[in-house]
Amino acid sequence: MQYNPTIIEKYEARPRMWWLYTLIILLLCILLGWSGSSITFNGVTAKGTEVASGIFFGLIKPNFDMLFTTAKDGVPYLLMETVCIAILGTIIGGLLALPFSFLASNKIMPKPIAFVFNALILLIRTLPSMVWALVWIRVTGPGAFCGVVTQSICSIGMISKMYMTAIDDLDTSILESLDAAGCTSFQKIRYGILPQLIPNFISTIIYRFDINIKDATTLGIVGAGGIGAALIQCINSRRWTMVGSFILAMIILMLIIEFFSTRIRRKLARGQ
Fold first, then answer.
1. CATH code of 243's domain
2. Is residue 186, in this structure, part of any structural domain at all?
3. 1-24 pLDDT, tens per residue?
């Protein structure tokens, strides 16, 4: 089989990057070795083994009375409180993220203004949700309201960042075509901007809702409402059948949410 001499010449003149790849692999090995040197494993404690076996036992034999009660300390009520916290936190955070994302976009706003709002979004994203909960619990007191405020603030940081990415990826040629057709500013927004942004915005909201459901459980541990507080109390008091009821309900809830959120995102992305 004959090869084109030009192709062979181009192949022979290709950049020789083996030294760069070797250096990268060497640096990764050094970083892994240095990171691993600071981690020590002292084995599994007796208490840890007891907790693991207790949770496993609780999942096998959950307390079904807790699963089918309407009391405020029952699984359905606490689970719905967790869902409500996540819904309110996601909606409020998503709405507040709209002005933040537009004001922080270099494509729309002058660079000094965009820099200020980018710094503010970065500040929000720097602190984890647990830290925000510990801050706001001193302001609002323990309860579901603290969880809503915390999730709203945390949602602003992540959603604004993803909104900004969608705004920066706008196809401006569509706006130029609409402008040439004599469309008004409202028509350009309605037919040129919103159709490009809405699918990405909705997908981001759904993705953040998935995160907030899990965070709402964690925030309950520090007293920010939801099922987390009851779960940690049952673990500390070693009521494993009740722990199994809480965890089983959370698993079922997450499977349902994951099923519907995946279908909605697929519909938005591919029209399927």
1. 1.10.3720.10
2. yes
3. 555 667 667 766 766 777 788 899
Residue 40 lies in a domain: no
Chain Cα centroid distance, residue 166: 16
* Closest among 189, 90, 202, 205 to 149, alpha carbons compared: 90
Q: Is the pTM of this model over 0.70?
A: yes
- The greatest distance separating any two alpha carbons of the chain, rounded to the nearest whole angstrom, comes to 82
pLDDT in tens, 173-227: 777 777 777 777 677 777 777 778 888 888 889 888 888 888 888 887 777 777 8
Burial of 207 (0-12, 13-18, 19+ CB in 10 A): middle
Look-up of token digits 């722990």: 243
CA–CA separation, 92 and 42 (whole Å): 44
Q: Which residues contact 118 (CB under 8 A, 6 or more apart)?
A: 104
Give, rounded to a whole angstrom, the gap between the first and last alpha carbons of the chain: 46
